[in-house]
């Protein structure tokens, strides 16, 4: 084996745990050609200053020896479409995944998406078909796992550790016997109501990533592959819930609490930095290391919008009289720290969700059957009077705000004729631009995209008709308008300066992710400009000497490759028969598990 990379430091937390491979003299018999490390929500905005200060020595080394830059995410910059665009090299208009939740065909009911919702081949399938062995661990939107040439351990869209989320099946028994199992995500992010619980979350986030390193080292040794990828989730989760502790200008920053948890996010990045140090110690110079994130990160906005309420007050959406809230006498746009009345079952559910761990909550939820049905009712939009509805928004997922036109021929009770579609889309778009912030009088929404402006491909027909940018400018978050009746019919709500720990986010996604390539064929210190998330798959294929399918939207990042190793990009013709997709893998029980995880992670409003 060739000379290994010299490691620059290692996380002290990893010493004595069997994870500092250099201490054990570990040597890989067959190292991967490419290792891709997904740092969920990773952002240079944090990494660069910390690396310069010497707090992230392995990041610092890779920045000096590799090529790096910003990585433009998808529209919207959301986990499900972003990771799927990465692994297919295509925009959502081709692979068909736009969010965690999408309406079913000829149905208003929102359904959870999975790998079976994907309509395009993945990088893993392409490499497997070319005879390459691949190892894929914890990448979102890979459940159910593909039957790849190698192994695949699905990510956050797997219902739980008991589900068939590992391929091949015998590997599951082996990992349980040798490593004590494989964990998906921690489950108590939504229960951080005390310092003790917050400290437990931080401890578990670090420990989970340590376990992933143990898993990686075991797989490297026992199941060598040509291309390996793993995603670390802890960065995303800690930034969602602990951003306000380190950000003095955040609207929910408190100096007293910052003294306790101001370094929480840094400590998670240092854990990832230490993991990279352990990997650099065992990977040879011939291995190309790729770091990437699905999106960036930044602070949340203090503003929230109840968009369906806005559409209703504008006469574009109708709610059944039995479910309608009391109508305000005049259009109301603004409230500060307002609270909303809920039925007893819904209030009980909200209280239980905030204080109880999942196991106890599941048992008590049986006492309040209305609590579970509240969200299910919302996902099905059962409160809406479709015969009088022109347009409606998806408000269930707080990281996405999409609007559908109730179109004849496409939707079960469509009211908008095809000839009026364009006119209606523009009418709704103008209405959104007219929404003003009562504090400064400026527009709240900076960009509203028609689907044709950001997507292309045959799946564009199933995309939301309008995508509202919540990440531009001062931004805003999304809240559910129904079935909770409003006191005053407010459209815009400003948050109080006190965060409901676990139940609310203080950090959210931004479109600017991160990418870095490191290896013997990569220019040292090169700044990568204009990279998009769809560029990673074709670039990986090119580095392996494999042809790039001509229907990929991404480009090969040639400018970062040393000129002495620069080769012409080979393209491969594809046919429509190569498109994939399958049946929904989730049972009702599985959907409930997915709902709970997304809710506990904070993705559902």
What does this structure look like?
- With 605 residues, this protein is of the alpha/beta class.
- It has two domains: 12-300 and 509-601, 3-Layer(aba) Sandwich (Alkaline Phosphatase, subunit A); 303-494, no CATH class.
- A nine-stranded mixed beta sheet has the order 7-6-5-8-1-9-20-2-21, sandwiched between helices. A four-stranded mixed beta sheet has the order 12-18-11-17, with no helix packed on it.
- β3 (101-103) and β4 (110-112) form a beta hairpin.
- α2 (44-52) packs across α3.
- The longest helix has 28 residues, at 195-222.
- The chain is globular, with a radius of gyration of 24 Å.
- Mean pLDDT is 85; it is low at 6-13, 15-24, 326-332 and 334-378.
What's the gist of this structure?
With 605 residues, this protein is α/β, with parallel strands linked by helices. The protein has 2 domains: 12-300 and 509-601, Alkaline Phosphatase, subunit A (3-Layer(aba) Sandwich); 303-494, no CATH class.
How many whole angstroms does the radius of gyration measure? 24 Å
Our count of helices gives 19
Strand content: 15-25%
- How far is the first residue's CA from the last residue's CA? 52 Å
- Write down the domain tally: 2
* CATH class category of the largest domain: Alpha Beta
> Largest sheet, order of strands side by side?
7-6-5-8-1-9-20-2-21
Structural class: alpha/beta
CATH topology of the largest domain: Alkaline Phosphatase, subunit A
Strand count:
23
Summarize the biggest pleated sheet. 9 strands, mixed
Could you tell me the mean pLDDT? Answer: 85
Percentage of residues assigned to helices: 25-40%
Q: Spell out the CATH superfamily of the largest domain.
A: Alkaline Phosphatase, subunit A
If classified by CATH, what would the architecture of the largest domain be? 3-Layer(aba) Sandwich
* Stretches with pLDDT under 50, minimum 5 residues: 6-13, 15-24, 326-332, 334-378
Shape: globular
